[in-house]
Amino acid sequence: MTHGPDGRARATILGGFLGSGKTTWLRHQLHVRRFERAFVIVNEAARTPIDDALLGESHRLAVVADGCACCDGKARLVSLLREICDERSRTDSRSERLEHIVIETSGLADPAPIVAAIRDDPVLVHHVVLSEIVVMVDAVNAWVHLRSEPLGRRQVEVADRLIVTKAEEVETHELARLFATLKHLNPAASISAATWGSEVELPPLGRAAPEVLPTLEGMSQRLPLFPASISLGPNVDWTVFAVWLSALLHARSGDVMRVKGVIRTPAGRLLLQAVRCVVQAPEILPDPGKDCDFDDDTIVVIGRGYREEELTRSLEYFARMEQGNSKP
Ligand SMILES: [Zn+2]
Q1: How far is the CA of 192 from the centre of ligand 1 (A)?
Q2: Is 133 left (phi over 0), alpha (psi -120 to 50) or beta?
Q3: What does the radius of gyration of the chain's CA atoms come to, in whole angstroms?
Q4: Which residues of the chain have pLDDT under 50?
Q5: How far is the CA of 202 from the centre of ligand 1 (A)?
Q6: Would you call 1 helix, strand, or coil by DSSP?
Q7: Rounded to whole angstroms, how far apart are CA atoms 308 and 139?
Q8: Which pTM value belongs to this model?
């Protein structure tokens, strides 16, 4: 994995409930050199730091202990990231420069506030760009977290990639139900399974209905998330889109989980991402076409409580207003 053309380091946020297998997965990824020239940050909510030796294969490692990085430990995480970026900027040799930062969150962390902390920091926003939110789901214990813990559901909802661990310890029909439930909670995430950190092929799971999860306290309507695909018509330019998006996120802050898409602008192709209501500084993509999951000028809004047509109509409305304003 390389840094983006804008030179920022790419950040992977690794989440998942306590005991879901985050460290095992990360250790394997480092072993197979998936994250080259990476700095690994391990966050522990408890005072006792983990056994750093577990991650001995990473190039660099730091532990933020005694405080979860999404709340109590956030300020310390930010200052550590600043130090890392500062050192990175002083490295002249491109071949030695750190490319990737992997943050293994504590099992109690919601990844979204961590992404927001990076975006909101005036220094980090220029040095770090979110690459992916990977969330581990333990097939044996996931149900407890999904049924009763708002945090367990938030972690699943915000993920780009869900990796199910301990799949071999449950019956196939149970696994099929878990996959269906995860797909229902977050239809836009990719879902795979891993054993001891490496990806495994699963037998055909067959069809299963997702489990109907109870409404939890503090979580409003629990309609399922769905991805709405919106293509930016010829009348929508970057400025109009930016205004529309900020209005949408303001009005629907509780409903929108993610926004992703590639937009052509005079400055080049921009990869745009938002996690909940926090929009990342867009990443300039090489032109033409690096491998990308999205078509140009299409954005995907993942959320609940609205319809795709409503979003399309409101964007068209903004575009018409803008055209009206620019008439002499
Ligand atoms: Zn926290």
Answers
A1: 26
A2: beta
A3: 20
A4: 1-3, 51
A5: 33
A6: coil
A7: 32
A8: 0.78
